[in-house]
């Protein structure tokens, strides 16, 4: 069984890969055709949905564990949740835009940077402190609960089922 750090590291890496792919383009400014822009929009929508699921799982599982077990965990969790709220606000602004709309790329860049900053904060400042106080058994149990939360979220109807053909997912994120 994977521990909490392995589970979340996998999520972070999968999201980072999609962010990197979106950064490569093509964009409206670089001459993307309509099909490329539509795919870019669908990838962005899926990224927003998956990021929201990831944040919710962290809010319900990770941050309570950080608050409970890590000295100074209240401040760490509060800072991380504020970062996640900022990401959510950027996602809410980005979501209604089409990939060819003015402002789409600027918001996507801000969303990407905020996501990377959050992952870096979590991995560099939170995980080492949490790892230092959790037993291997507790880290595995927290990882199991996160996997279960992810599976439960995957069984819910896709919020964008009407926006994508047949409710198809355009990315896996675990």
Can you walk me through this structure?
The chain is built from 5 helices and no strands. The protein is mainly α and 174 residues long. The longest helix has 36 residues, at 34-69. The chain has one domain: Four Helix Bundle (Hemerythrin (Met), subunit A).
How are the elements arranged and paired?
Elements lengths: L3 H21 L9 H36 L3 H22 L9 H30 L2 H20 L19
Relevant terms:
disordered C terminus, 174 residues, Four Helix Bundle (Hemerythrin (Met), subunit A), mainly alpha
Q: Distance N terminus to C terminus? A: 15 Å
CATH topology-level name: Four Helix Bundle (Hemerythrin (Met), subunit A)
Radius of gyration: 17 Å
Query: Which CATH architecture is right?
Result: Up-down Bundle
Spatial shape: elongated
Q: What's the average pLDDT?
A: 88
Give the biggest sheet: none
What is the number of independent domains?
A: 1
- Which blocks of ≥5 consecutive residues have pLDDT under 50? 158-174
Helicity, in percent? over 70%
Q: Describe the oligomeric state of these chains in a short phrase.
A: single chain
CATH class type: Mainly Alpha
The helix/strand class is mainly alpha
Helix and strand string, N-terminal first?
HHHHH
Query: Quick one: how many beta strands?
Result: 0
Share in β-strands: under 5%
Number of helices: 5
């Amino acid at each position: 069984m994977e521990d909490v750090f392995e589970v979340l590291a996998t999520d972070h890496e999968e999201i980072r890969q999609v962010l990197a792919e979106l950064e490569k383009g093509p964009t409206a400014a670089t001459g993307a055709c309509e099909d490329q822009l539509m795919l870019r929009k669908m990838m962005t929508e899926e990224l927003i949905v998956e990021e929201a699921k990831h944040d919710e799982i962290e809010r319900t599982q990770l941050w309570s564990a950080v608050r409970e077990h890590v000295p100074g965990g209240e401040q760490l969790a509060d800072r991380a949740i504020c970062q996640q709220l900022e990401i959510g606000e950027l996602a809410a602004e980005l979501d209604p835009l089409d990939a060819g709309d003015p402002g789409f790329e600027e918001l996507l860049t801000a969303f990407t940077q905020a996501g990377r900053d959050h992952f870096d904060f979590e991995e560099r400042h939170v995980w080492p402190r949490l790892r230092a106080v959790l037993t291997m058994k507790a880290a595995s149990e927290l990882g199991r609960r996160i996997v279960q939360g992810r599976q439960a979220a995957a069984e819910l109807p896709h919020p964008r089922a009407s926006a994508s053909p047949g409710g198809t997912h355009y990315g896996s994120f675990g």
